[in-house]
């Protein structure tokens, strides 16, 4: 799990003057590691706050609008195609001569000039987040809050100078997936006080008290459900400080209500949801299991059919949210909402995971709930949400906080013997250091009998601190892993390695061989999407379909390595225009309806980005090099119809000792186009187990020939569709005893060659094992070869 967080935001809870780089170094040594630091600063010029005064339709373009925008000193005519603009909105406007970014994080940009769009003059441009260089969101114009002063430079009113920390958090620490949790770790790492305090909003009810009934019918699946009604809501754009923090974390600002829930998600690692109170039938919320046939239109705009056993939040009539996963569209707050219900709850991690997988519906909320969050986390999160709603949405409290709680929190206390700390870590750590380290992390420590420590676990660490071994790990990381002693092993390890079986041995060998040839190993998912399957001209019905896929991208089990390789090439061709790849992985072939898949190891070699003939020759060369390393006598090739391999333009079967090992060919133009690949791709796909059955660990010994050979070359014009393997077979049958080897030299097609023909050059080695072969004898056999090729393929000797 990774968390992108503003360094300025974090410093509100951890007082430090350290540079972001030094801070990242310090916290990474004892806690979650900071993978990357991105500097955030204005990547634009001459951008001011503008207010849209008038919007008219473009006379010659249905999707364009002609807007009159006040930018302070003047009103400008600006043509805009965004669908989210309205009269009265305040928006960022780049003036003529100003610059905007190409994309987020990319240096430079482009200058805005006066222009005519479909015949209408435009002086400037209203900006999206992408054009401001703040994110890659280009879905609409960035809407500024109502209190933004018209004509003010944007960089003056929006705190853009910041550093974004990309923090890697292990899956057992969902408590650190938040600013408050990260601040707890940082304060311990730096030895400073954590400045966070629980919010204390005014909870007195003002005006008419609203009724809301909460019924939790599945208490095991929902140990805590808190809610409050708030009225007199004014839905507007969020303050710029909040928008900047959301943008920095990769979230798009929507409006102050939605932004509050996302802000709380980031600050406390606690999912929340907002319901429109007026849209809740019966003014009630029921936490129950879905009924057969029930459906819900979720916030992603899709309708989902619910199954029995899936936990939902329902009003008096129907579900309004899938518990812990996503809210419903029909009860969501909108710009017209005046009264809301804040939901802040805790749901069973297994229940959320099963529901999310079954519906193929993922969200930031489900991701957190699946890892396990303490039900105690709802209290500070809800307090902060109420305070923010009062501050930025003018909200008034219209009910008491409803707290349906089916458990009683009891602090977990673990006995920790100092002798065990020393034994496990191999270094003596004083009681004072152990106590200081644990207390810095939020534990409460008291000295018990015989010097042992009684350690009380803070509620936010309930799920991952299970015994004294976990406490010792906490002491170790605070002491510093680099400070633990190291000692060379007293006995040497045995260097004799016997592979467990041939498969492991040859897997390692073949990977070494191919890497030595200069190929790059790729790893592709065993699960693929229907789109990827169809792009490779394969049929989804021939694949095993997953009952509960993680997403539509992982819906089927692959039956070939080719689709995954094509996807890799498509995604990387912009950066690496040509390459040689290999993949040694399993495919999954369907057997019976209720049988497990037939799992087979396949070896794929792919060459892309070069000339068509060169690509297939390169692939053959790699295959020949592998044959030599595996000490296989020879490979033969037999042309096969592409109906068996629909992604090929032309294909041949690869054989050894007349046993088919796989296929080689070039990918068809239609397949390349479907996968958005612009250059030729040649592919070899072999059955790994059949291949290693032919392999030998050492070459077969053959004595050196006693008599010299005669080598004669033959250049011919031959049909374009004739394979070299066919020519080789025809040559050898002329005189199998005298003809020792037929070697491919070159092939050429061009202006000087007849249409549908190619120039093929081969070398034939003649040898008599009983005497020295004379040239005239070799020439006689050579003439017979030419005669046979003329008869079989109507060649013309060049």
Can you tag this structure with a few keywords?
globular, alpha+beta, Phenylalanyl-tRNA Synthetase, Chain B, domain 1, 6 domains, 20 helices, six-stranded antiparallel sheet, 798 residues, OB fold (Dihydrolipoamide Acetyltransferase, E2P), Phenylalanyl-tRNA Synthetase, Chain B, domain 3, seven-stranded mixed sheet
Overall description:
It is a single chain. This protein folds into six domains: 69 residues, Phenylalanyl-tRNA Synthetase, Chain B, domain 1 (2-Layer Sandwich); 113 residues, OB fold (Dihydrolipoamide Acetyltransferase, E2P); 193 residues, 3-Layer(bba) Sandwich (Phenylalanyl-tRNA Synthetase, Chain B, domain 3), CATH 3.50.40.10; 70 residues, Phenylalanyl-tRNA Synthetase, Chain B, domain 1 (2-Layer Sandwich); 193 residues, Bira Bifunctional Protein, Domain 2 (BirA Bifunctional Protein, domain 2, 2-Layer Sandwich), CATH 3.30.930; 88 residues, Ferrodoxin-fold anticodon-binding domain (Alpha-Beta Plaits, 2-Layer Sandwich), CATH 3.30.70. The protein has 798 residues and is α+β, with helices and mostly antiparallel strands. The protein is globular, with a radius of gyration of 35 Å. The model has no long low-confidence stretch (mean pLDDT 89). It has a seven-stranded mixed β-sheet, sandwiched between helices. Strands 3, 4, 5, 6, 7 and 10 form a six-stranded antiparallel β-sheet that branches.
Strand order of the largest sheet: 27-31-32-36-35-34-33
Helix content: 25-40%
Average pLDDT works out at 89
Could you tell me the CATH topology label of the largest domain. Phenylalanyl-tRNA Synthetase, Chain B, domain 3
**β content, as a range?**
25-35%
Calculate the terminal CA-CA distance, rounded to whole Å. 66 Å
Largest sheet: 7 strands, mixed
Question: Which class of the largest domain in CATH terms?
Answer: Alpha Beta
- Give the strand tally: 40
Count of the separate structural domains: 6
| Low-pLDDT segments | none
Per CATH, the superfamily of the largest domain is: Phenylalanyl-trna Synthetase, Chain B, domain 3
Structural class, by secondary structure, is alpha+beta
